[in-house]
């Protein structure tokens, strides 16, 4: 059974996703987190409850208020380095088991020129391998093999906080009102991992903490109240 409110579509576990099935009968589609199926047989269903989201009618996924992260190939994540061996680092990404990160999975890294990464460091990385049969594998390069000033160790003067995966996906949307409002008013750095972790660095500690509270506070704000929330939070942060 599905329900629709304000043009939103909500699904229960096991419910068929007719929108994705109709699209897959005409063109190639991609199903993301929260959905499973057999596209060859034109069948797609929800693996958990949540709101159905789609992009250009070719990519479908479910948004839900979950905190348990299930690694998926291609995800960008924030992890804590918990150990190191001869060839790899062990990284906690919030999944059921640690992920591995090779010394050579950094831009410009060679056997002689190893990256300076220590236990306790925070890394922003991409999942290269994610399967129930093997341990997750990370790389600090994008799909083209370049870093592009995105992946790698994050500066220690930033702050990492944990939140729901749903909030992380909202903050990754350039059109999300709070993302646009903060980017317009302040100069700061932010890295968002879809594993429920966000790293923020403002120009000083007070602003960094203020930005973190602003992001955490928006999660349960109604869509109709987002503009008011953004105006109020920008006003409150003016003194930071």
From TrEMBL:
Primary localization class, coarse: cytoplasm
Localization per record: Cytoplasm; Nucleus, Nucleolus
GO CC term, one of those recorded: nuclear exosome (RNase complex)
Statement: the UniProt record of this protein carries the keyword RNA-binding: yes
Limits of the K Homology domain: 158-204
Gene Ontology terms, MF aspect: RNA binding
Keyword hit for Manganese: no
TM regions (residue ranges): none
Gene3D superfamilies given in the database record: 2.40.50.100, K Homology domain, type 1, Nucleic acid-binding proteins
Domain of life (superkingdom): Eukaryota
Keywords, comma-separated and alphabetical: Cytoplasm, Exosome, Nucleus, RNA-binding, rRNA processing
GO annotation (BP), single: TRAMP-dependent tRNA surveillance pathway
UniProt family annotation: Belongs to the RRP40 family.
PANTHER family: EXOSOME COMPLEX COMPONENT RRP40, PNAS-3 RELATED
Protein's recorded name: Ribosomal RNA-processing protein 40
Organism in which the protein naturally occurs: Phlebotomus papatasi (Sandfly)
Source taxonomy: Eukaryota, Metazoa, Ecdysozoa, Arthropoda, Hexapoda
């Amino acid at each position: 059974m599905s329900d629709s409110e304000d043009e939103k579509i909500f699904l229960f576990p096991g419910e068929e996703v007719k929108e994705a099935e109709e699209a897959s009968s005409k063109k190639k589609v991609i199903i993301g987190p929260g959905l499973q199926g057999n596209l060859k047989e034109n069948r797609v269903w929800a693996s958990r409850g949540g709101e159905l989201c789609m992009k250009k009618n070719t990519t479908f996924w479910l948004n839900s208020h979950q905190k348990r992260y299930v690694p998926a190939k291609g995800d960008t994540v924030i992890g804590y380095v918990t150990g190191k061996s001869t060839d790899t680092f062990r990284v906690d990404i919030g999944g059921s088991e640690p992920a591995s990160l090779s010394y050579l999975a950094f831009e410009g890294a060679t056997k002689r020129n190893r990256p300076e990464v220590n236990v306790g460091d925070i890394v922003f990385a991409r999942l290269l391998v994610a399967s129930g049969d093997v341990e997750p594998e990370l790389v600090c390069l994008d799909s083209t093999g370049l870093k592009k000033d995105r992946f790698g160790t994050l500066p220690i003067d930033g702050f990492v906080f944990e939140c729901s995966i749903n909030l992380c996906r909202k903050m990754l949307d350039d059109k999300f009102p709070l993302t646009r409002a903060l980017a317009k008013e302040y100069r700061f750095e932010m890295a968002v991992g879809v594993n429920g972790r966000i790293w923020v660095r403002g120009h000083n500690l007070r602003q960094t903490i203020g930005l973190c509270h602003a992001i955490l506070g928006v999660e349960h704000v109604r869509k109709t109240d987002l503009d008011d929330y953004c105006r109020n939070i920008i006003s409150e942060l003016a003194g930071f």
